[in-house]
Design brief:
The protein has a 5-stranded mixed sheet with strand order 4-3-5-7-6, with helices on one face. A two-stranded antiparallel ribbon has the order 1-2. Strand 3, helix 18 and strand 4 form a beta-alpha-beta unit. With 496 residues, the protein is mainly alpha-helical. The chain folds into 2 domains: 286 residues, no CATH class; 118 residues. About 5% of the residues have low confidence. The longest helix is centred in the first third of the chain and has 27 residues. Helix content is 61%, strand content 5%.
């Protein structure tokens, strides 16, 4: 009876922290990377969509089963895409919370320490990871969220002494997100070695670990193909790939956590906390090794094509564990059993992160839930286009539209469900992953230069050159075209 009550309490706390985490971080489908993934899912379900530009999301996703998995789920369950995305986002967060608790209970005996760690992670879901353009967890469904949850579950299995259970989990994470899966395999290799072997034997096996981890990163011969000028230009816009150009504080954010884990190992060893100390040591060695790999990739010209694998993104797992263990230590040594300390702790960490997210997404609803209408003028325009223009419509819009005031980085393809000429922000990132798209991207973005000063003749030129049939304009742009819809910010027009 007592065991059942304890299990019920832990399940309830997992659900509560999942809800709190989602409420603090917000939910924004279709933003940033989801502009690629959501468009791919919709294309899988309806191949008639995106007849002009599907390569700008389809080619990049050939290495993952994520979009086909979600599309098949929608197809067989008949649950709408919007509800499906929210369901899997909630499930991913719940699994992350649960896995964090499983890891914490293997490292700390005190329940208050375990749940303080979980509380800090859920509040800090949108903590930026130094220099990598990542959060701990994205505010939209992303295969990285799902892969992170599965990797953390695999880590908990290794800490529980059931390391073979981690193998299928890591393979699944690799199928969902190859980069995250490779990082997860690498980390779990270090944890396994440190947990199973004395340090001198582990050091002796370093060379085989090095070879295995590099193998997880190295695909086929395309790595050594010479990069094109266009590809180099696209990569140069992504500072998180070229970390030799990072600012000092970004380097501090990369190195300081590794020093803290080394310090934690030293202190835990003195306190005879062997499991915590070994786990901290595994994180330290994992971080040092992956940073060395990243430096080699960036520093060796022959390996330049590996830059899109973004080797410094290993820091995402480091930050998750730093947040989790930091919260556990706060709970163990500072909060203890004091109710008012817990109250202050929870208010400070959650309110601060909530305010930062509302500032970041000030022009749209904090929770863009399925079926909820939006007051955002850009989302209103996307909604009208989705329901009132032909499926094969081909749109042109400001190539910098994602960064426009009030747009909040919502992807046109994903939400309007129509083809568009290449943009200068998200499609640039796609080109870094798929160099063969560079020529088409450069030609289209060059044709869109000076967008804010375009006249009717310029739009007719786009129609002649690319087959564009519709445009989404600022309401302030004077044109002589048939414009069936507008609001205070935007106008939708048909090119004659």
């Amino acid at each position: 009876m007592r065991l059942k009550r304890c299990l019920s309490v832990n399940i309830l706390l997992t659900l509560l922290f999942t809800i709190f985490g989602l409420a603090v971080m917000g939910y924004h489908p279709g933003i940033e990377d989801d502009g690629v993934y959501l468009a791919a899912i919709k294309s899988d379900l309806n191949p008639a969509l995106y007849p002009h530009d599907a390569d700008f999301f389809r080619v990049q996703l050939q290495a993952t089963v994520f979009d086909t998995w979600i599309a098949d789920f929608v197809h067989y369950t008949r649950i709408p895409i919007a509800a499906t995305e929210f369901f899997f986002q909630f499930a991913s967060i719940a699994l992350i919370v649960f896995a964090c608790w499983l890891i914490a209970r293997r490292l700390f005996k005190e329940a208050r320490a375990q749940w303080a760690g979980v509380a800090l992670v859920t509040a800090m879901f949108t903590l930026p990871v130094a220099g990598t353009a990542l959060y701990l967890v994205d505010q939209h469904l992303h295969p990285r969220n799902m892969a992170t949850a599965i990797i953390l579950l695999a880590v908990s299995r290794i800490l529980a002494g059931k390391r073979w259970q981690a193998v299928p989990l890591l393979l699944l994470s690799f199928l969902l997100h190859p980069i995250m899966g490779a990082m997860g395999i690498s980390f779990c290799l270090f944890v396994t070695l440190v947990m199973l072997e004395p340090l001198h034997l582990w050091v002796r096996s370093w060379r085989s670990a090095e070879i295995g981890t590099v193998a997880a990163f190295v695909p086929l011969g395309w790595i050594f193909e010479p990069p094109t000028f266009i590809w180099r230009g696209a990569v140069a816009t992504r500072t998180y790939m070229c970390f030799y150009h990072w600012e000092w504080y970004e380097w501090l954010g990369a190195i300081a956590p590794l020093f803290l884990f080394w310090l934690l190992w030293y202190l835990a060893k003195k306190r005879n906390e062997k499991r915590l100390g070994r786990f901290a040591l595994a994180i330290f060695f994992y971080g040092v090794f992956q940073m060395a790999v990243a430096m080699i990739i960036v520093g060796v010209p022959a390996l330049m094509r590996l830059l899109p694998m973004q080797p410094m993104r290993f820091l995402q797992l480091v930050y998750v564990f730093m947040t989790l263990i930091g919260g556990c230590l706060i709970g163990k040594y500072l909060l203890k059993a004091s109710v008012w300390r817990w109250a202050v702790f929870l208010v400070l960490i959650n309110v601060g992160m909530f305010v930062s997210q509302r500032t970041l997404f000030a022009d749209c609803e904090h929770l863009e839930l399925p079926g909820r209408s939006s007051s955002n003028p850009w989302l209103q325009a996307f909604s009208w286009i989705r329901t009132n223009t032909p499926t094969n419509a081909y749109f042109a819009l400001d190539p910098e539209y994602l960064a426009a005031p009030g747009e909040d980085y919502h992807g046109f393809r994903a939400l309007a469900e129509r083809s568009q000429l290449a943009d200068n922000i998200k499609d640039t990132a796609v080109v870094t992953q798929v160099p063969e798209l560079g020529e088409a991207w450069a030609r289209q973005t060059k044709a869109e230069k000076g967008w804010s000063h375009f006249q009717t003749a310029d739009f007719e030129r786009l129609k002649t050159e690319f087959g564009v049939t519709w445009v989404l304009l600022s309401t302030a742009q004077p044109v002589k075209m048939d414009c069936p819809w507008h609001n205070a910010t935007l106008t939708v027009c048909r090119i004659p």
